[in-house]
Amino acid sequence: MTSGIGGSTAAKELAGIQADTSSVQPISTAERRARVEKAARLMQDNAVDALILPAGSSLYYFTGLRWYPSERLTAAILTPDARLIYVCPGFEESKLRETLGAGADIRLWQEEEDPCLLIKTCLQDLHCKSDVVALDEAAPFFVFDGLRNALPLARIINASTITAECRMHKSAAELAIMQAVKNITLEVQKKAARILHEGISSFEVAQFIDQAHRAYGGSASTFCIVSFGAATAMPHGPDGEQFLREGDMVLIDTGCKLHAYNSDITRSYVFGKPSQRQRDIWELEKTAQAAAFDAAQTGVPCEQVDVAARKVLAAAGFGPDYQLPGLPHRTGHGIGLDIHEWTYLVKGNQRPLAAGMCFSNEPMICIEGEFGIRLEDHFYMTEQGPRWFTGQSHAVDAPFGDH
């Protein structure tokens, strides 16, 4: 039996959890203000007259306001002089002020009114031009449609040149939160491996993972993929329930949130004794992951990280490109307030790697009809190069380094 796999129960593993996230602090008001000021400078550099942030991750990033997206528009307007104005339904004002405080500039619209016309009025009141309006890339179409009707002479552009440029470079405070949440999920992965036994349901494992994430002080699982056997070759797993058998490859990919920042870690190993085929492919996956990490040097184009991983796989006869058997998706994605966010380790991305960028590293090997292996860890960039949040799996016989 692979070391660290099986031999325990869900009850025992949950009972042994001691949560302590007290050393990690949420993002401060001062840091959020610095983010707003940076965005305003970028607006000036790009001749953007207004930045519109409806409900979503970027609204939270800049303002601290967690808001649910709906057909009723609630949004922040940022001007090039770093002023924030909020528009929301009249009956929601008290709820906004719980977060924003009495001093926030909140403009209200009533149920029969058009909130995009209120945005137009706000810009006029501030003597703010509306030639170029940047709209958050995740905004629903109805917001875009409303703005182009309310501001027919405006050029509405994708705000990612501002929002992504801010969000992809993490601060020390963000890195600390992300380290803590990734530590939580790695510990949950270890515990999930220990509860495995022949016949266990993938749904039962996923339920345990959710409970463990919360017991450690994280959120409920933001997602959870638990796959056994041939289903591990499906990158995002099957929809149906599976039951574990001796000799199966196991793939568990999961994450949670802490102070709104995400973890996302995958572990692959064998329940029982690995076959030579499983052992060889597992080692190849680890080698490709290491090659991607080594290629991630400051100033190097993002795509070269993807190239490095594929070069290892191609030399072993996999691929090329996205062909199966091989790696059917990009090598990595940015991560932060969203599980997938700018920027990406993918062919064609010429953006240079820079300090503060955070990525998954997951050059999965899919062999349809047999099994798949994904080892996913994350790293962040420093001026001196990449640093792991969580280091690579130890060995196929001891994925968590138990011996």
From TrEMBL:
Keyword Heme: no
Residues spanning the membrane: none
Domain Creatinase N-terminal: 35-168
Pfam family of the protein (one): Peptidase_M24
Domain of life assignment: Bacteria
Alphabetical keyword list: Aminopeptidase, Hydrolase, Metal-binding, Metalloprotease, Protease
Keyword DNA-binding recorded: no
GO molecular function, one term: aminopeptidase activity
Protein name: Aminopeptidase P family protein
Protein source organism: Undibacterium hunanense
